[in-house]
Design a protein that fits this description.
The chain has 244 residues and is of the alpha+beta class. Helices cover 11% and strands 27% of the residues. The chain has 4 helices and 14 strands. The radius of gyration is 17 Å and the shape is globular.
């Protein structure tokens, strides 16, 4: 299992470290476990209250160069389409806290025909300056090594957390690469992330593929709606987006 992270507007276990974003009290997840079923942690987090319900948290999913990332089209999609058009390299989406979102990764470099279906579960939100939500997405990086491990039958759990600047470990990183810390055998990645900061999202990769070309609602976890945004540098309106 992996605990990752980024700094500033990105994250470590994937890390997001910024005074403006981190200014909220840090909740503790001791009653939660990284091995809980998908969706359970997010639902329990909503039950604890706070300005979470209904908030659409920007998330940037990054894949190896050339790969395509597609969100589920939604279980109520009238034309029967299961997946929306894939985005190359990066996908910026808005996801409410609580539900589980399924994505499809295709065109993985040097691996024609390989398809993977990771899920993302948001368990908290950021608090960026007003009007700058898209400048501070929760970054989730899908590395080629992890994708290939999942293709071999391995299951990977990555907890993305907002870094506590007072507890930040020294981790070397290359450009936009998302730093990560590997949880030791028997160590819960969610508890580990909670020690280092505020858990924001859980990425699960591997273990499940659809049984047909038309995955059912159970595989898509009900396919809750997501908002797909243009990347800020290509968008005239910082908050512009379309609901799928």
């Amino acid at each position: 299992m992996l605990v990752t992270g980024k700094m500033l507007w990105a994250v470590l276990v994937g890390l997001m470290c910024s005074t403006a974003v981190f200014a909220q009290d840090r909740p503790v997840h001791w009653l939660h476990s990284g091995a809980m079923p998908p969706g359970a942690i997010g639902r329990q987090r909503l039950m604890r209250g706070g300005p979470l319900s209904g908030y659409c948290q920007p998330v940037e999913i990054r894949a190896p160069k050339g790969a395509r990332i597609a969100p589920a089209a939604g279980s109520a999609n009238i034309d029967g389409q299961t997946w929306h058009e894939g985005h190359v390299d990066k996908l910026l989406v808005g996801l409410p806290i609580g539900p589980v979102y399924r994505f499809k990764i295709t065109e993985i470099p040097d691996h024609p025909g390989l398809e993977l279906f990771p899920t993302v579960e948001l368990v908290d939100r950021t608090y960026p300056p007003q009007g700058q939500q898209l400048r501070f997405p929760v970054p989730i990086e899908l590395t080629l090594d992890e994708l290939l491990l999942a293709a071999e039958g391995r299951f990977i759990t990555r907890v993305i957390y907002l870094e506590d600047p007072l507890l930040a470990p020294a981790i070397a990183r290359d450009g936009e690469e998302q730093p990560w810390i590997e949880a030791r055998p028997g160590e819960d990645p969610l508890v580990m992330a909670d020690h280092l900061g505020r858990p924001m999202a859980i990425l699960r990769l591997g273990g499940r593929v659809p049984e047909s070309n038309q995955p059912n609602a159970a595989f898509l976890y009900g396919a809750p709606p997501a908002v797909v945004y243009e990347q800020p540098e290509r968008s005239r309106k910082a908050e512009g987006g379309r609901r799928n």
